[in-house]
Write a structure and sequence with these properties.
This protein has about 800 residues and is α+β, with helices and mostly antiparallel strands. The chain is built from 19 helices and 49 strands. Helix 12 runs antiparallel to helix 13. It binds alpha-D-glucopyranose (GLC).
Length: about 800
């Protein structure tokens, strides 16, 4: 592959050319600290929340520049030549470059003028800091006198405030070098957001294990007039001290002097972080200044990721690339999504917090390999529900419940997650666990904020988890328009259909279908909880809603997408643009709303209008003009984001629908089209080949069809894992066991899944001698033939062989 390749064991992606078409990044993180880092050490760090506690600077346009970052300047004091140990920010040509993104660490190696440097960046398991383990080797035949300068640029504080009021925010900055501890400290005098002023409750810091022979904190002085990080005055010329910085842009740079004999190596550690107070900083810095300890912590990080990812659900198919992405990298991506939801990346706006609907899906994705994490998230999510069944759209560990207007689809998601949890673990007791309801001033079915409400978020009684889910769905079932379909309000799953229902009349067909699916899941849970009447009622409601969809939304060959406040239809053959949308076809199948001939017609239309060389587009044709009746969806340039991109999350809904319909060849082909490590032209695709992107630019873009965008934090990760394991290989978790119903490409002769389940391990071997796409002909468990395809859970902590023959 151009620019790099996976290591033999697949656990690292090794980039060999620093000039990748976009920064290719990694997340080094525990749940309280995160460092986002590119192949050349560009990126930023934050503490607890990527908006409220940004530590280092980042600017939204930087995915083109990949600056600033976590850099070390190296200078040969004799020749005066200087370079960046990670290629950036000096960008001199190295004689060797290698950047390895691994699970929980990134190692960047370069070679310049006989000096080899290797930096391994990682975030320890518990502490709120990042470590740069540095190794410098003199491979030349002469002794070398070097200056080494680790360098970062501070932001400290609220990222959004910084973006809006940069030149005011930096007036609150305080950075200083503390002679006694040789640590550079950083804070804002206080945090200011409109009229709300809060003390700055922590302290950021930067230190190294080498003695400092100088320090700099003033960017202006370090970089010099009309210069940049590429050629800073303090590196190209003499180092200029600036031990404290007050009320202006700040950096942290430490000056180290090193003499290296031929063949010798020097190791040292740089620590960057943020914590509560000075004492804690000193404690953390001392801990990691001990190189042996820093290395031991790195090993712990590697082991922890290995344990989380490598030996749980494993697939083996004839397609090694597919196995690699599902067995390793998509799980890693799912973890990052679970930790940070949709906020920090090189693309996203960094609003901080975690989203409700996104988390529900991320948690479903992680279920098969970390149900404990899933449970703790389910508990948090359950606490975001109001008595009327509406939800807060998200939460942040530093800023609490999100107070903005929620989208109408939020209430339908948690039931899937809880259902997956109960099926994965067999723990139905969770349904009876009590959770509080919350009240936060949103009234009238969460459409208006009570301006007299000053209590923040308070508890508003409590109920069981089952009751929370029931209220959730009741909300959507009763919040309907003239056809009895759910209102779309300020958007549903598609954030950008944000004007179609502003006046609370527009209806969402997709949401109706999703609700049908939700009620079916709730009915199963009700049965399990012993609520026979509620189960019946849920099934009735699913039926009623499905009937409404079929009565009002079938368009002849497919389902329409919705009706606006002005009662105009969209996603219909009657429309000039936006004639057919993927989501109301895929979810017609997911919700079990469509049957018989209609289903065939619908798939035919999907194949004809939406499927393309680079995957399934969100809809067709793209909007070319702003339509105030629909909203932002019509504003993006054709083929980008929600305006008819190949939106991978939605493409995967269709893949699941294909599987449910037995279209194994189609499902697999569609998966391959969006698979990051199956992209053939990296100069076209541009983004990381080891993680899914949110979308590929769609066919109607004038010149960028096939380009990847918004990588890492996307529901695509969770859904692809589910699509591959539960639907394609077809090992579905059920209340009493695993239902085996593979829907695979007809040309796969054999595949395999190792599936740990409730303490047992199931080794499932699927043979396909007749070349079919679906149909279990014969199934044996530990050599004994079964009459049906449900493998009952054995609960004996043993490994069981499941032999499946299709035909
Ligand atoms: C983004 C959001 C997700 C939303 C989707 C469609 O991926 O993270 O929540 O459903 O866009 O708008």
């Amino acid at each position: 592959m151009k620019y790099g390749n996976f290591s033999k064991d697949g656990l690292e992606f090794i980039i060999t050319d620093p000039n990748t078409p976009r920064p290719w990044i990694n997340y080094l993180t525990n749940e309280n600290y995160c460092s986002v880092i590119s192949q050349c050490a560009g990126g930023y760090s934050f503490y607890k929340d990527c908006r409220s506690d940004r530590i280092t600077r980042w600017a939204p346009e930087n995915y083109h520049y990949d600056r600033p970052g976590k850099y070390i300047y190296i200078k040969d004091n004799k020749t005066k030549k200087y370079w960046g140990a990670t290629y950036q920010p000096v960008m001199a040509k190295p004689s060797k470059f290698e950047s390895r993104h691994g699970l929980g660490y990134t190692t960047i190696k370069t070679n310049y003028y006989g000096i080899e440097s290797e930096i391994t960046y990682f975030v320890p398991l518990e502490d709120t800091c990042e470590i740069w383990l540095v190794k410098i080797t003199n491979n030349s035949s002469k002794a070398r006198d070097l200056t080494l300068v680790p360098y970062i640029e501070w932001l400290v504080g609220d990222y959004h405030m910084e973006l809006r009021y940069r030149n005011i925010m930096n007036l609150y900055d305080r950075f200083w070098f503390d002679e006694e501890s040789e640590v550079i400290f950083a804070k804002k005098t206080a945090i200011w957001e409109a009229l709300n002023i809060q003390p700055f409750r922590s302290l950021a810091f930067f230190a190294s294990s080498l003695g400092a022979r100088g320090s700099a904190t003033q960017k202006d002085v370090f970089v010099g007039r009309y210069k940049t990080e590429t050629n800073p005055e303090s590196i190209s010329g003499d180092f200029i001290e600036s031990g404290s910085c007050s009320g202006e842009d700040g950096i942290a740079a430490l000056r180290h002097i090193l003499r290296l004999n031929p063949g010798s190596t020097k190791e040292f550690v740089v620590v960057l972080g943020q914590t509560e107070n000075r004492n804690k900083v000193i404690e953390m810095v001392s801990k990691y200044r001990d190189i042996g300890n820093a290395k031991a912590q790195l090993e712990r990080v590697k082991k922890s990721w290995h344990d989380k990812i490598v030996d749980n659900v494993i697939i083996k198919t004839p397609d090694k690339d597919f196995d690699l992405i599902i067995n390793i990298w998509v799980k890693y991506q799912i973890y990052i999504c679970n930790m940070w939801s949709r906020s920090p990346s090189f693309y996203h706006e960094g609003a901080g917090g975690r989203g409700y609907r996104d988390s529900c899906q991320d948690v479903e994705g992680i279920m098969a390999f970390n149900p404990e994490h899933a449970l703790s998230k389910i508990r948090t999510l359950a606490g975001l529900i109001r008595q009327d069944g509406s939800c807060a759209p998200g939460w942040s560990t530093t800023r609490g419940h999100a107070g903005y207007l929620p989208n109408k689809d939020h209430p339908i998601w948690l039931v899937y997650t809880v259902s997956a949890y109960v099926k994965e673990t067999g723990n139905a007791a969770i349904l009876f666990e009590k959770f509080p309801y919350m009240k936060d001033g949103w009234i009238k079915k969460a459409t208006k904020k009570d301006i007299h409400w000053h209590k923040g978020v308070i508890k508003d009684g409590e109920g069981t988890l089952f009751e929370h889910l029931e209220k959730n769905l009741n909300f959507t079932f009763t919040d309907v328009g003239k056809r009895g379909l759910p209102l779309i309000g300020h958007a549903d799953w598609n954030d950008a259909i944000d004007a179609a229902g502003k006046r609370l009349k527009g209806e969402s067909v997709w949401l109706a279908m999703a609700l049908v699916r939700s009620y079916k899941f709730l009915a199963e849970l009700a049965d399990l909880a012993g609520y026979a009447k509620k189960a019946q009622e849920s099934r009735n409601r699913a039926k009623v809603m499905a009937e409404r969809v079929n009565a009002h939304c079938w368009d002849g060959d497919w389902y329409v997408r919705g009706f606006t406040d002005f009662d105009t239809v969209y996603g219909s053959f009657k429309n000039r643009e936006g004639k057919i949308f993927a989501n109301t076809q895929s979810w017609a199948v997911l919700g079990g709303v469509v049957e018989g001939e209609k289903r065939n017609k619908m798939f035919k239309a999907v194949d004809k209008y939406l499927d393309g060389k680079h995957g399934i587009a969100l809809f067709y044709p793209a909007y070319s003009n702003y339509d105030p009746k629909l909203g932002r969806i019509t504003m993006f340039s054709e083929g980008t984001k929600e305006n008819a991109a190949v939106f991978c999350h939605a493409a995967t809904f269709m893949i699941v629908a294909d599987c449910l319909a037995g279209r194994g060849n189609k499902a697999y082909e569609s998966m391959k089209k969006i698979m990051p490590n199956n992209q053939k032209d990296m100069d076209l695709y541009k983004t990381e080949p080891y993680v899914y992107s949110e979308y590929l630019i769609g066919p109607e873009h004038p010149y960028r069809y096939g380009e990847g965008a918004f990588t890492w934090i996307t529901g695509t990760a969770a859904w692809n894992f589910l699509a591959a394991t539960e639907y394609l290989l077809g090992v579905h978790r059920e209340l009493t066991g695993l239902r085996i119903d593979p829907v695979i490409p007809s040309y796969w002769k054999k595949c395999y899944m190792r599936r740990p389940f409730r303490g047992d391990v199931y080794e499932i071997v699927i043979k396909n001698p007749k070349g079919v796409e679906r149909g279990v002909k014969n199934i044996k468990v530990d050599g004994i033939e079964q009459k049906h395809n449900l493998v009952r859970v054995r609960n004996d902590k043993k490994t069981h062989l499941v032999e499946v023959t299709l035909g």
